[in-house]
Amino acid sequence: MDSPGRDLLFTKLRERLNADKIKLWLPPYTQDGSSEKGEVPEMLISQYSEEFKFPQLEVAQALEELRVRALTRLEERAKFQAEGLATLRVKLTCQLPTERSPRKLVPVECSLDIRGSDLKELIAAKFDVPQSLLKLICRGRVIADEKTLSNQGVKNGSDLMAMCMTVSEANVIQKDSEFAQVKRTRRAAELLSNRGDDDEHFDVQIADQKGQPINLPKDEKKALTVAMTLHEKGRSALKEKKVTLALPLLLEADEEFSKCRAEILKTVDNYAILCLDVVWCYFLLKNLEQLPDAESRLHKSEECFKLSYGEQMERLTAIKGGTGTEQALFMRLYLLQGIVAFHQGQLSQARNLLGRAQFVLSLLHVDPDKLNEVMLMGFTEREARLGLRAKNGNIQQAVDHIMKQKQEKEEINQRVKKEWKQRVRAKKLGKTRSGQLVNMEHYDTLVAMEFSRGAAAEALKQADNNFDAALEVLNQQPQLRLLPDPEKQPMQITEASLEQVVAMGFPLEMARQALENSNGDLLRTINLMLERAGSLAASTTAHSAVSSGSSTSNSSSTSSSSSCSTETPEEKKERLRKEKEELDSLVQDINRDENDHLDLTLTEEREALGVYQGLLDSVAV
Predict the structure, then answer these.
(1) Where is the Ubiquitin-like domain (predicted)?
(2) In a 3-state reduction of DSSP, which class is residue 423?
(3) How far apart are CA 407 and CA 538, in angstroms?
(4) Cβ-count burial of 501 within 10 angstroms (0-12 exposed, 13-18 middle, 19+ buried)?
(5) Which of 23, 24, 204, 345 has the fewest C-beta atoms lying within 10 Å of its C-beta?
(6) For 25-36, what is each residue's pLDDT tens digit?
(7) Quick one: which of 315, 224, 318 has its CA closest to 274?
(8) pTM of the model
(9) HSE-up of 179 (CA within 13 Å, CB side)?
């Protein structure tokens, strides 16, 4: 009997046995005083066989297996109460040779006071697999190595999924002597989240369904950045069919999303898609022991879709001008809900949900000839498929839709890029007295009026971005024109140049300050010293006070690197280089197309739908 059909029979029998108050571990089903098989009335087997439409032999075998399971559970419960030894049931999901890859749950005995790493060691020895390749999951959560099992919700009788990653995946995971790519990805994601909007190399933006950036408080943006980054890496692994690598990343993302306020998750559909991706991994791994978690996640996914798209998808229609592309997500949602209902024995509900999945699938069908025709116009296969789905197969409307989407995306990208560049420039100028970044429009206007860049920046900082007040500062403090260009990369101050200035009779610290003010330019420093002679210290002190105030107001944004304050310039340079390498590795395979998750070919979904509809047709509702 196929596994889904077998699971259905077991579900039906359990429900009926409970309803009929039949206890298989007691006489006459089990011999009195022993665990030996007793007698099951032929009439009972015949009744169940006729009711559930399964052969009598299969019903009899299933009843015997349920009887043995019940006795085993009772023995395990007694042992746990007497000795404190819990029995966990482990299912290994990996590509081992057939004789080493068990199809059933395998019992593992241990104390619940041991750590996750200890359990991993036991399971690795049990299945003869490398411990470093294992990831353990219980109740939809990755078991942490350093915490005890009891602190992670593991109980006597819990079902566990042990994912054994393939050797090729292990090579990737152990790169640079790291234990797991999940940890490396999390660290890189946290590094990325610590980068402000004004980072010179990475632009971190969280956008709505239309691609418009969403303004969020710093802490909330950080949590979402980590969550979405882990999710994207998980989806990337899933697309490459590396399911055992994808699932831990997705579950890590789920942990981060749980830290966000529900109001934020209503704005974006990422959490709904994440829940869907996690259950899809369960399905691909054939891990039906996670069904309760799957049902809960699918319910969350559906609720989040409603909040994000609207009860009748009216919000989505208003935002994107159609709902065709998002229907692919609902097709997978209905399919998975139908599969879960089937394995829970809710056949009528399963038939209804799979029927809805079939209907949506028919709407999403793209005529190959139409697809080719749109592609011949210069569009990619993805653009053509999504366009045709969005406009129900109408070629002209699909082309217009694609063009409009590309134009809107380009406009948004240009605006976001410009704003990012302005923030990066503003960061170099420092902050005003109230802690705000310098207004770049005012700054550029002052520079266009032929004020020096250093003077323009300092005047706006002193005037707290008030343009008229900044003009007054510039008129009253002409010495500001001598300040260095804040946007120019500082020249290195060499010992030779410092010695030349000191040789002119100026104190060492004054010479160093003058070189810094002149951006390391020796000729400009000498001219400045000759022009201002003894009054240099007063002006530099005033400027220093302003800089000190600015750095104080910016302390919150730099606190993350305070532990590195004792670094030498060489150490800091090396640390930043390594961080950039980590971030480059993180973002290189993250798709920047916000519609990537919608481009489902639905081939696997179509096959699964056919299998479960066939199973439904073979049993009575």
Answers:
(1) 86-163
(2) helix
(3) 55
(4) buried
(5) 23
(6) 999 999 887 888
(7) 224
(8) 0.62
(9) 10
